[in-house]
Amino acid sequence: MGSVSLKIGDGTARFRRASLCSSAVNVLMLFSVITTNLFALYAFTSSPKDQAHPTQHTHKNISFISEQVSLIIREIESSQKKLAQMEKELLGYESIDLSRPNTASELKLFLQRHQLPLGKDSKTGITEMVASVGHSCDKSVDLLSQYMTYKVSGACPDDWSLAQRLILRGCEPLPRRRCFAKSVPKVGLYSFPISLWKPVSDKIVSWSGLGCKNFECLNNKKLGKDCVGCFDLANGYENQRFVKARGKNDFLIDDVLALGSGGTRTGFDIGGGSGTFAARMAERNVTVITATLNVDAPISEFVSARGLFPVYLSLDHRFPFYDNVFDIVHAASGLDVGGRPEKLEFLMFDIDRILRAGGLFWLDNFYCANEEKKKALTRLIERFGYRKLKWVVGEKPDAAGPGKSEVYLSGVLQKPVRV
């Protein structure tokens, strides 16, 4: 009776649930309604004349009561169906219209319900399951259907850029596919830890859908405030980051780690560029997961080639980690999700969720476009009650022209113990 929607990461797994308690309540309600109506019918249909001829009216009354009971049951069933449909609409699932023309058959097959192999689960009451797919996929059904059009057991289309477009539109998680992804020979990979600072070959990554076709081209581009020449591991500033400061906003990694309590073993890097933060932490026996998207560059493959762990997801995706599991979370300007202030609030609450009590939140050179943005971020952080171990607001020259400067905020904050 009814249904329940269970969130898994930023995806939604849907289950139909038959609750023993809810079933008992419904049966009791049905019994009460029928009993009440039977008494009412008896009161209205009985009379002194009927008492004189009880046998004559018995069959007529029984027939009339049966019709009324059947009508009541049909009304109850109709109401239950309407309530179930309203619940589905409110929860927002099953909103993808698979009856639309040109909908890929694989998409229809993937979204079909599947009965649990051992029947209803005795503890949860779950009887069947629907594969998870992002709620916002309903707004991009044409693109989603294009993504799910392929030859089963054949080679997947070279459409990673299409997949990323869907992810950035909120269609996350994407449905699984039954095809073989294009493989690029990884010849010339270095063993760990030598791989951390060895240049990555142009031949071991995929350049399809990208403007640049080699790392030399990428190093001549500014891909973001946190990625200027960030694929050049031999020259430039990338191999000095976190160990040599260029200004007061640049914290040294050993100084930050010394502020931690209880040891630092695991970390999460948000908007980590080419993975240099994770590389520096790996040198100190700290395992860091880097959140990536391939925006104008093969970032995920580059991070992986360095022997590091990339996770391919957008910042609108709920982090696929359990609560209180990381000792440190590092975020730079990638923390700036733009839009309404509530968007940043959702992100900050998820960061707080995965960071353990006593863990460190390292805000590294966050770009403040204006004074109001700086104040808004400061007020938001203060709401969490973090202890400020380091807090620096400084200016840097603006590349847009001489005499101009940009304001950056850096800080190391410690999550409090909450009861």
From TrEMBL:
InterPro entries documented for this protein: Prob_Methyltransferase (IPR053223), Put_SAM_MeTrfase (IPR004159), SAM-dependent_MTases_sf (IPR029063)
UniProt GO MF annotations: methyltransferase activity
Coiled coil: 69-96
One Pfam match: Methyltransf_29
Sequence intervals crossing the membrane: 20-44
Keywords: Coiled coil, Glycoprotein, Membrane, Methyltransferase, Signal-anchor, Transferase, Transmembrane, Transmembrane helix
Domain of life (superkingdom): Eukaryota
Subcellular location: Endomembrane system; Membrane
Bilayer topology term: Single-pass membrane protein; Single-pass type II membrane protein
GO CC terms of this entry: endomembrane system; membrane
Gene Ontology biological process: methylation
Predominant place of localization: membrane
Membership in a protein family: Belongs to the methyltransferase superfamily.
Name used for this protein in its record: Methyltransferase type 11 domain-containing protein
Species for this entry: Vitis vinifera
